[in-house]
Amino acid sequence: MPALEKITVLIVDDIDETRDNIRRLLQFDPNIDVIGAAKNGQEAIDLSQQIKPDVVIMDINMPDIDGITATEIIRKKVPHTQVVILSVQSDPSYMRRAMLAGARDFLTKPPSIDDLTGAVHRAGKMAQEERAKAAQAFPGGAIGGGQVSAAVAPTLGKIIVVYSPKGGTGCTTIATNLALAMHSEDRRVVLVDASLQFGDVAVFLNEQVKNNILDLAPRVDELDPEVVESVTIRHAASGIRLVAAPPRPEMSDKVSSEQFTKLLQYLQRLFSYVIVDTCCYLTDVVQSALETADLIILITTQDIPSIKNCNSFLSLADASSIRRRIFFTMNRYDKRIAITPERVGESLRQEILITIPLDEKIVSSAVNRGIPFMIDNKTSLPGKAIYQLADAIRERLSKAEIEGETQAKK
Asked: Residue 273: in which H helix or E strand, if any?
């Protein structure tokens, strides 16, 4: 990889002496260039849009707009800019709020020179890589009003739908954790909540919903990358993007199946993976998702009603020719129960490819805290199973792509 250019920095603090001290700490690093300073949150927002720094070093406590609010606004308006928060408060709740707002790092005042420059280098590297990817995707150098969006996938991404015909089998748990497992800097993921009446994806990620699918679907024919970046919610702890369900059940009717299909097809132009969480009912929107999917993660448990419903769905799948795109998965697998994955697979004539073991303590705690277990319990048994699922999905999609290319050449 070629050497990165100088990292440009904007310093934000309402105390003149603090701004000067931070500047002095950074001036000893030849790879860091301080290009601006702001004394309050509003000035930081305005300057960030004007000079587009790689990194903003942001104080939390300021008289007009606090640093956390300013961070959230800057991350939306200048997506490649990364924010390093400085605070006299070392309380974990401050750190959590900062990360949820989109901050890249959190340091306690006064930071050591090594901690500060290290944080700036990490954030600067990410900022420049995101800007470079966006420039490759849009060679003209700008989108819309001159603002470059975050990185986009160079080829069409894959649409992965997580579905179960029986409620309560853990679809949302699998969808949210799978999204985290499949996301990386060069393989971005967007998670779409297609349970439009009672979607819980935002709750599982502990996100406050400011925008939702109704901000995208009605104008699906006029979308651009900048609009998608501004409307989708960025999950700070992982970097995945989220398209949330409407805030009220009666608003679900405002999204048509045609709009939803077009939205998924547009998102796959911007993201490597579009992961769709669904409800158990075959609504028009859910059916459109299943028909559009490159892969359908069909979820069952060892409960008889769940197995019965999966059998009925597989019969429908035969009639609609989507069975070959089904990836059968058993959730909450308990070895003590006599109904084994092998028996279920034989009975339904569809092999269960991955089992996710039962661990109610870890899963329930993750849901109640709004922190998916793939963030802080990824080495648990369910976490390892999700990684196996992610690897198996990549292998399945890669194989299907190769087979498709072979058929096209014949």
From this structure: strand 273-277
| Neighbour tally for 324: CB within 10 Å | 8
CA angle 219, 294, 278 (to 5 degrees): 65
Contact by Cβ (8 Å): 233, 239: no
Could you give phi then psi for residue 296, rounded to 5 degrees?
A: -115, 115
Q: Could you give the CA distance from residue 390 to residue 377 in angstroms, rounded to a whole number?
A: 16
pTM of the model: 0.64
Q: Which domains does the chain have, with CATH numbers?
A: 7-137 (3.40.50.2300), 158-409 (3.40.50.300)
Six token digits for residue 368: 């109640």
21-64 pLDDT, tens digit per residue, is: 999 999 889 999 999 999 999 999 999 999 999 999 999 888 88
Residue 396, burial from CB neighbour count under 10 angstroms (0-12, 13-18, 19+): middle
Cα(first)–Cα(last) distance of the chain, in Å? 38
Q: Indicate the helix (H) or strand (E) that contains 177.
A: helix 171-182
d(CA 66, CA 92) in angstroms, rounded, equals 17
